[in-house]
Amino acid sequence: MTSPSPGTAFVLGGARSGKSRFAERLIADSDLERHYVATGRAWDEEMRARIEQHKADRGPLWTTHEEPLDLLSRLSAIDREGRAILVDCLTLWVTNLMMEERDMAAEFAALASFLPKAKARLVIVSNEVGLGIVPESRMARDFRDHAGRLHQMIAAEAADVYFIAAGLPLKMKG
Q1: pTM for this one?
Q2: Given CB 3.0 to 4.6 Å as the disulfide criterion, which of 90, 93, 134, 161 pairs with 39?
Q3: Is the pLDDT of residue 83 over 70?
């Protein structure tokens, strides 16, 4: 394991816990050039509307990059000193990778190994999905397991790790 990246924060929480708002504040408070890497895909009108609302809520100070699959390539392309990059969110990325039958272990390892080398301040958001009951279907169990493994890898490399519940942050590391 490498030493934690001083510029990476990992923000975990449940759905509608306030994790994205908290992550955006971490970056807004930094006075760095703001970049937002969105991993979600608009599969239907409701998701399309959510994405547009999130863009509007962030406002014009953010540059948005939509990248559902090749997260590492996008991060590498925009990684610069003086920038802050928010990745939202890893669990949507995991879903996209699963749907495309990508090599999960290789994708996860590549992302984790990038973090200590990043020049930008990184804030990475993900949904904690391992706190509930065991999922009924094989695909849902695989998703939960992939997310759990990825979260452990990212948390190991991050300097700061937060868990958000009811809009309140709990600092777990850093």
Answers
A1: 0.93
A2: 93
A3: yes
